[in-house]
Design goal:
This protein is mostly helical. The protein has two domains: about 40 residues; about 30 residues, no CATH class. The chain is about 55% helix and about 0% strand. The model has no long low-confidence stretch (mean pLDDT about 85).
Length: about 90
């Protein structure tokens, strides 16, 4: 009983020590990364996200439907001719 308790406490101590060393190492690396990181240039010409929808209001084009069917067929391992897409 005493030997099992000793081994358990020794193992837990080793794990705790290694975790503490890893934590200190990552803390040191993050401090060094902040210290030596290159300055980020800020500009007023940053790209602006487009607000246009993916599909037009009249629905997807034939090319868009074909691309969607090809992607679904590739993912499911079937032929694009084996299913139809219903767009509402």
């Amino acid at each position: 009983m005493q030997e099992g308790l000793t081994i358990t406490l020794f193992g837990m101590g080793v794990v705790f020590t290694v975790l503490a060393i890893i934590w200190l190492f990552t803390l040191l690396l993050s401090k060094l990364d902040l210290k030596f990181a290159p300055a980020v240039a800020t500009s007023s010409t940053a790209p602006v996200a487009s607000s246009s929808p993916v599909f037009s209001k009249s629905g997807p084009t034939d090319e868009e439907l074909a691309a969607a069917k090809a992607a679904i067929a590739a993912q499911t391992g079937t032929s694009p001719d084996q299913f139809d897409l219903i767009v509402k």
